[in-house]
């Protein structure tokens, strides 16, 4: 009796896969693979003897496609599987190739919205010098003083001047006005003259005494490069990536330095020596600098969300949970949720199958909190409930550990899993639910595209998903009992 192609192929793989001496490397669609020389020879011989036409090759390809390479636990068998498939495709069409199933990856987009900078043109000139417009005797007098003084600049009303495309400000506490009727020799006799600056402000010349400073005025572009990080304001919550870890920052809106325009003298700030610890935020058209007036929380390594299509959503809710309930071991729990998602969606072929797999796992494995159930049956008042209920049921990470939840966290877990599974257009809808006799309680459920899902109300369907009543509902269907907030 002849074996079916798929069974024959599995038997062939078993017969071929006895060598573990890897030596032959090859590339398919920029992916590198390795197979032992002896196994390569056997596969090549198999192709030569058994594959006599494109029709036969396609039959073997069809049989191979019925085998999930993940089920081949032995690494050598996997390598033989991929190499055999590769050779068969080449036999059918030398321009075709095959790549194994790999985890979908994505380049991480910036978590925070970068500040957009205005384009400002500043004349790229040296210090302005208009002394050549003075009369001969005045110029001679000024030249003698400036030859001894340390510097000479011409400033505006703000004590500023431009040099090589940057603004600078001069500061000094005491000065002498240069009087045209005072002999220049009296100025030259000042012993400290060589350490001072001669200034022209419009038609007045000033000579500083007891020291001066010249400070550069920094543009927003400069400040962006100097501070801890910068971002466009987003509801008071901003994320940053530092040393391959996610950080979240929450700001005190009432405490900040306001930058009046696109420029700033850092010495105008308190604690200006710590500019690297400031955070720059653009709120509408206003720039704000925060120093100490914010909280910084480290979450977890960026690799955890490398294959998540909505990292900002996950990060926001992870932080809120930590902020409200001080959950420990965030990274470990998030890793378990990601791994569980990949496990239960491993053999799914499309979004509908992913949604079903995730919904089924949640409703079959997470129980509703018993004490909350008693409250919903009106066994006691809301005040009694809030005083006695375990606060862990309101923390999705704690409830993931305890497997006892309320509606908000059923929805959040499903949302995270959908993100890890790359199901788009998913969100949480909140409002009130009618639990009978027009009694309304706060509730949360899932919306994916134009369809609705409520895993909380279906958790009692254990082991029989045909009993799902709040799965794949239209807006008209779900909103008969679920009233979204306006």
Detailed description of the structure:
The strands form six sheets. Strands 3, 4, 5, 6, 7 and 12 form a six-stranded mixed beta sheet that branches. A four-stranded mixed beta sheet has the order 8-13-14-11, covered by helices on one side. Strands 20-19-18-21 form a four-stranded antiparallel beta sheet, covered by helices on one side. It is α+β, with helices and mostly antiparallel strands and 486 residues long. It is built from 15 helices and 21 strands. The protein has three domains: 88 residues, no CATH class; 203 residues, no CATH class; 177 residues, C8orf32 fold, CATH 3.10.620.
Throw out a few tags for this protein.
486 residues, C8orf32 fold, 3 domains, six-stranded mixed β-sheet, four-stranded mixed β-sheet
Concise summary:
By secondary structure, the chain is α+β, with helices and mostly antiparallel strands. The chain folds into three domains: 5-92, no CATH class; 103-305, no CATH class; 308-484, C8orf32 fold, CATH 3.10.620.
* Structure classification: alpha+beta
Oligomer: single chain
Per DSSP, what share of the residues sits in E-state strands of 2 or more residues? Answer: 25-35%
- Strand count, sense and closure of the main sheet? 6 strands, mixed
Rg over C-alpha atoms, rounded to the nearest angstrom: 36 Å
Low-confidence runs (pLDDT<50, min 5 residues)?
A: 17-22, 97-107
**Please, what is the average pLDDT?**
81
User: What is the helical fraction, as a range of percent?
Assistant: 25-40%
For the secondary structure, the number of strands is 21
Terminal CA distance reads: 69 Å
Shape: elongated
| Number of structural domains | 3
How many distinct helices? 15
